[in-house]
UniProtKB/TrEMBL annotation:
This is Zinc-finger domain-containing protein. The chain crosses the membrane at residues 75-96, 116-134, 141-161. Keywords: Membrane, Transmembrane, Transmembrane helix.
């Protein structure tokens, strides 16, 4: 009986963020909703409020909606900042490629140096901040993408310069 009471208390707390729960947590909540009419009524009323809020196109006053919106927008700003830094590195490469007579090999080393000096610290800091903003599977994807970029960005730029 104590476990059901604990699950009931937890279920009441997580109903507002039901859509953001993991699949396993959703299954636990759904099982409890089948057994508890009070939580089922709360869930139904939240679903009705959510439908009304979607039609009015604004962030509703539920406790975690603004936090979720802030986390997602922060994550996208981090991605945008990474893209801007990569663009600046590419811009410098192409400017040096067109204005100097330096061999491409030297310019290639310049891109590698810029990636290590500018992009790598940014990627580490951005991924550390993203740990608090998004789910862990996205962090793994970003880490793999950053490693691929570190090793191949200079090659890609050289292909476009030829």
């Amino acid at each position: 009986m104590m476990v059901n009471k604990d699950i009931h208390l937890l279920c009441e707390e997580v109903l507002p963020i039901y859509e953001d729960l993991s699949e396993d947590a959703k299954k636990v909540v759904e099982r409890h909703l089948e057994e508890c009419p009070v939580c089922k009524a709360s869930f139904d009323s939240l679903s009705d409020e959510e439908d009304e809020d979607r039609s009015s196109d604004h962030i509703n006053g539920r406790p975690f909606t603004k936090l979720i919106w802030l986390k997602r927008s922060g994550f996208f700003f981090i991605l945008l900042f990474k893209i801007i830094v990569l663009g600046l590195i590419a811009k410098e490469f192409f400017q040096l490629n067109t204005t100097t007579e330096a061999p491409l090999g030297l310019l290639d080393e310049g891109v590698r140096a810029n990636m290590v000096l500018f992009y790598l610290p940014l990627a580490i800091a951005a991924n550390a901040i993203s740990l608090f903003l998004v789910k862990k599977r996205y962090i793994a994807f970003l880490f793999i993408l950053d490693v691929i970029l570190l090793f191949t960005y200079d090659t890609v730029l050289l292909r476009f310069a030829e």
